[in-house]
Amino acid sequence: MKGKQVLLTGGTGGLGLGVTPAVLAQGAAVTIPYRHLQEVERLKGILSPADVARIQFIPANLQDEASVDQLISQMLRVDVLIHLVGGFSMGKTHEYSFDSWKREFELNLNTTFLTCKYSLKSMLEHGYGRIVTVSSRAGAEPGGQLAAYSAAKAGVIALTKAIADETKGTNITANVVLPSIIDTPTNRQAMGAENAEQWVKPESIAQVICFLASEAAKDVRGAAIPVYGNV
To answer: Other CB atoms closer than 10 Å to residue 5's CB: what's the count?
Structure first.
């Protein structure tokens, strides 16, 4: 990805702390949208000054179309979109509120649609693009009390595959990664750390993402890649 302009959403989050250094190591220039300055500072704390200098941090609300449009207009172009933003909640369907249902779709699916839509416009203009989205094992293998999350993440898979089909015959690809439980501090706090060694590490997911985002993956399109660890 040397010299490529990369839009990396969720780059300051738990998964992003593993993905961002890996993307920078590939030589990319990175734009990271953010909501909270403390998360930006946390990321800067694990990076070298030289790496930080290659990141453009832009405040943005990825659930708002105008904000996404403005974000991408501030980039030179979008060569690569890596979309990590997402969220998770549980609840039995008959007890789950409609507001919570809508929040899952806003955070997981609608942000994916908006960032893909405006990144694609840039990619089509200059004839090159790599799109890598992040769904979940739950999107392919739904489970109880995960109806909203599973449905939203299934939508991410469907959206990504549709984009891959739309961009056949171009130098633009779209692929989706399906992690199981990711070993992040948030997940350890929520679920306990007893089985964390079996979970998939952010750094491992990062290697898969970086391949799909690279020149080497030019013939991979519409793939849904399971990255399950030992779960």
So the answer is: 18
Tokens for 23, please give them.
Answer: 């993307």
Which residue matches tokens 């839509």? 117
What distance in Å separates the CA atoms of residue 128 and residue 216, rounded to the nearest whole number? Answer: 13
> The tokens of 21 are what?
């250094």
Residue with tokens 């990175």: 30
Which long-range contacts does 52-56 make (Cβ < 8 Å, 24+ apart)?
54/24, 54/28, 54/29, 54/30, 55/11, 55/20, 55/24, 55/30, 55/31, 56/29, 56/30, 56/31, 56/32
| Distances, alpha carbon 199 to alpha carbons 24, 184, 195, 196, in Å | 24, 9, 7, 5
CA distance 63 to 114: 8
Is the pTM higher than 0.90? The answer reads yes
Tens-digit pLDDT profile for residues 120-133? 999 999 999 999 99
Do the Cβ atoms of 30 and 56 come closer than 8 Å?
Answer: yes
- What region does 222 belong to: left with phi over 0, alpha with psi -120 to 50, or beta? left
Closest CA to 78 of 136, 17, 35, 119: 119
Give every strand in the sheet of 55-59, ordered side by side.
Answer: 55-59, 29-34, 5-9, 80-83, 129-134, 172-179, 224-227
Q: Which two tokens stand for residue 202?
A: 């952010």
